[in-house]
Specification:
The protein is of the alpha/beta class. It has a single domain, classed as Metallo-dependent phosphatases (Purple Acid Phosphatase, chain A, domain 2), CATH 3.60.21. 31% of the residues lie in helices and 27% in strands.
Amino acid sequence: MQFLNRALIVVLALTASVAAQAQEPAVLKIAAVGDIMLGGTGTPEFERFGYDYPFDKTRALLKQSHIVFGNLEGPLTHTDHEAVAKKYRYRSAPEKVAPALLNAGFNVVSLANNHTMDQGAEGLRHTLEALDLVGIKHTGAGMNLAEARTPAILEANGVRVAFLAYTLTFPEEFWATAERPGSPFGHESQVRADIVAARQQADIVLVSFHWGQEGKTELRDYQKQLGRAAIDAGAAAVIGHHPHVLQGVERYKHGVILYSLGNFAFGTYGPEAFRSAVAVLTFREEWRRDAPITEPRMHKKLAELRLHPLNVRNAEVVFQPLPLVGAAADKVVAELQQISKPLGTQLENRDGVAVLTIDAAQEARR
């Protein structure tokens, strides 16, 4: 009888341990959004309602994550200098936009895009200063190529995360060189080298690419090649911007590639931009039995991706992204499922949120 009692205690203890592990809180949550530009046609509305206004309906969702990331499309400056002849040139008020981004929960942004240099080197310098002043990290642009390739490294909940960002868009004059300010072009060899170096400084590496064709859900071959190369080099996730529309999600080896998140808070009435999503990546600790002796046994593994649908059609939401529910959310999830299926990715609809669960068994089969 005493033996049975002891056995029962052991079984109960093991059951409690398994249950506790199943309910373990996430090690880290990272939210990512699409293109952000608080200027242009939307300026009168931002001035009227305030620069916190664009984030009023998404702030609560964003602040559920430890880190919030987006693509800041266009310089924060009052300078009006046509560095290169372009049809569209953007600029936003630095003293208003930077604090609004911080208030919305953003603590890191990409500057690697085809608008950061719209107002020349001075506009870029003002942007860097404005972000530094409020404590928002940035990557993907600098006063020379070395600065532009430098990762933004943050620590949250005891986890170090490195962000890298690259452009694959024109004009070529906006590409940084050893002597010229701008954004780093996404040469695969440089991207791989930067990821390997960043892995020495951080537990998790995320990479952002400004790529693809505007208004198109179809992918270019180079997007697939470069996105997969980034994962092969050690990135946990790739986050794409530029097309202004949603593109598919690819589950690739240990990571995911979000080819485009579309627009977020963007100050134009672009007709193609009407659906978007807030991506939330959840990382948990995992024991690696096969880890090389030079690497830690415990590592941070991507466990889940959630995509929360948004309406970003500015004619309807007036420059304030609106989280969708019900049938409207289901419609966006269905679109994400459709454009992700050819990439071998099955997204689940959970109450109007597209969910991808990543488990160890699934990873081992890939």
